[in-house]
From TrEMBL:
The keyword Hydrolase does not apply. This is PX domain-containing protein. The keyword Protein transport applies. Belongs to the sorting nexin family. GO terms for molecular function: phosphatidylinositol-3-phosphate binding. GO terms for biological process: positive regulation of autophagosome assembly; protein transport. SUPFAM superfamilies: PX domain. It comes from Oreochromis aureus (Israeli tilapia). Residues 45-171 form the PX domain.
Length: 434
């Protein structure tokens, strides 16, 4: 490496664009449900949830929920389903698994867990994390998390993930023995890198901005949906008053009584139907929430890249400074003010032996610095390549999932409107027969 190289010139190597052809060739998976060897061999379900009571780490009584994971061979001889292998897991164990995956695979957009406590709720929906409806939605979300991991071309091959599915007792010890907690970069270190990177990769900067904007948009959608749910609930329940009034009216009529009573029943049915409708809508909200939480996973990959880029720039800058020191020592010229330069002026120049010793030490330090820059540069390039492959896979998955979720929501609204039309059509028939 030439002495004239600058830190910016070294650092910019990591930002070379991957061509579209290379990117296409590196995308192994398009997020099909059974695209990995693991899902071709096993069926994975979170079959049920159970409330338990026990003592926590500080010997206090607590109530918590555990989830039953079932796995069974995807194909069995004779077509008879095999009995599943089962084990129970707490939500905190799912959290530990995801933290391990985040640290171990920093270049991958790790699937998010469902919310720990209900967010964006409308007023009739319980925010209690032990509420049966919330626990059921979380059960569905945890199963979805396992299937996301199991369908990923890299994560599905992780031994710790397989142990999570199969070893109830020894799994926690196995994950802690990996030492993943020691590898975790501190949040403060990542923030420092974000503000101090001189040559950020424009693609990751754009991705981070997109992630922030998507987070804001989905949050707005969820808030609007919660407000609409509140108003819909009120409108439907008010229709129950029609039923009460028609029933009271029918009691004072002879010829019109039967028609009014029937119309009142239709109104009561309409008013009661909103509970099931809004419960079904919660599953749509949970689909949106998954991608709300996915935006944090995307930002995590961007932060890791910033940290690697920052370390590369610091190594390159340190190398430039050492080469400058060598040049100054060899030529006897000092470009900038330094304590060593002042010392030599006050106490005289070094002896030839001292100078030769310092030159040799600097040469050794320069060689080590060049090796460090080379390693950091390779690390950065490999991270960019691996991360961008996974980002392309994620984009395809996101577009497909959100398109299907929005279509399903539209169909749900159309169905709801048709039911309303049908109720009033039935009421019209009742009135016509009076």
């Amino acid at each position: 490496m030439a002495d004239s190289v600058s830190s910016e010139e070294v650092a910019v190597i990591s930002n070379t664009d991957i061509t579209s052809t290379e990117s296409e060739n590196n995308i192994i998976n398009t997020m099909v449900e059974r695209g990995t060897a693991l899902l071709r061999k096993l069926e994975i379900n979170v079959a049920e949830a159970e409330k338990r009571t026990g003592k926590n780490t500080v010997n206090m009584q607590e109530t918590y929920t555990v989830y039953l994971i079932e796995i069974r061979p995807a194909e069995t001889e004779g077509g008879t389903p095999a009995a599943p292998d089962t084990l129970w897991r707490r939500y905190s164990e799912f959290e530990l698994l995801r933290t391990y995956l985040l640290v171990t695979y920093p270049y991958i957009i790790i699937p998010p867990l469902p919310e720990k406590r209900a967010e964006f709720v409308w007023h009739k929906l319980s925010a209690d994390n032990l509420d049966p409806d919330f626990v059921e939605r979380r059960r569905v979300g945890l199963e979805n998390f396992l299937l996301r991991v199991a369908s990923h071309p890299v994560l599905s091959n992780d031994k710790i993930f397989f142990l999570f599915l199969t070893e109830e007792k020894g799994w926690r010890d196995a994950v802690l023995e990996t030492g993943f907690q020691d590898k975790a970069d501190s949040r403060l270190k990542s923030l420092s890198a974000m503000f101090r990177v001189k040559n950020p990769d424009k693609r990751f900067t754009a991705l981070k901005q997109y992630s922030d904007e998507l987070n804001s948009i989905i949050s707005q959608l969820l808030r609007i949906r919660a407000r609409v749910a509140d108003r819909l609930y009120g409108v439907y329940k008010v229709h129950g008053n029609y039923g009460r009034v028609f029933s009271e009216w029918s009691a004072i009529e002879k010829e019109m009584g039967d028609g009014l009573q029937s119309a009142g029943h239709h109104m009561d049915t309409y008013a009661a139907s909103i509970d099931d409708i809004l419960e079904e809508e919660e599953h749509f909200a949970d689909q949106l929430k998954e991608y709300l939480f996915y935006t944090d996973a995307v930002r995590s990959v961007c932060r890791k890249h910033e940290l690697i880029q920052y370390e590369l720039e610091m190594a390159a800058q340190d190398l430039v400074q050492k080469k400058q020191q060598k040049e100054e020592l060899a030529t006897g010229t000092v470009r900038i003010f330094s304590l060593k330069g002042m010392t030599s002026k006050l106490f005289g120049q070094e002896s030839p032996e001292q100078k030769e010793s310092r030159l040799a030490a600097l040469e050794q330090s320069i060689q080590e610095g060049e090796e460090t820059v080379k390693e950091k540069n390779t690390e950065c390039q490999e991270f960019v390549r691996a991360a961008w492959d996974d980002i392309e896979r994620f984009k395809e998955q996101k577009d497909k999932d959100l398109r299907e979720a929005l279509i399903s929501y539209a169909i749900m609204q159309i169905s709801m409107c048709k039911k309303g039309i049908q109720v009033w059509s039935n009421a019209k028939e009742c009135f016509s027969k009076m």
